[in-house]
Design brief:
Elements (H helix, E strand, L loop, with lengths): L1 E7 L1 E3 L5 E9 L6 E7 L6 E7 L4 E3 L7 E6 L4 E6 L8 E9 L2 E4 L3 E5 L2
Parallel strand pairs: 2-11
Antiparallel strand pairs: 1-3, 3-8, 4-5, 4-9, 5-6, 7-8, 9-10, 9-11
């Protein structure tokens, strides 16, 4: 089992920045992918970004150039640096972890972009 604990999030004005962090604990393979999804009210959950254990990244088109995902394999953490935030970035953000044995989700953290 893998446990994911998220931190960060909150409310920020348009154009502002936030950083989300997530730490994985438990038993898992070192070959894995960590990432972030988000779900806005009334919308489907969507991939924001993910990063492999080797550092290969994948971003949603809507966040390219504004968000940066990174990870620390020694600490089993993944971070999402969000800049130039827009109201449409408002959502619950979920940390995710996937290895050969399963997919795991964090409890979610709210990000609200509003003036």
């Amino acid at each position: 089992q893998v446990q994911l604990v998220e931190s960060g999030g909150g409310k920020v004005q348009p154009g502002g920045s936030l950083r989300l962090s997530c730490r994985a604990s438990g038993s898992f393979w070192s070959i894995n992918v960590m990432g972030w999804y988000r779900q806005a009210p009334g919308k489907q959950r969507e991939l924001v970004a993910n990063i492999s254990y080797r550092g290969s990244t994948n971003y949603a088109d809507s966040v390219k150039g504004r968000f940066t995902i990174s990870r620390d394999n020694a600490k089993n953490t993944v971070s999402l640096r969000m800049t130039s935030l827009k109201p449409e970035d408002t959502a619950v953000y979920y940390c995710t972890f996937a290895d050969g044995r399963g997919d795991y989700w964090g409890q979610g953290t709210q990000v609200t972009v509003s003036s």
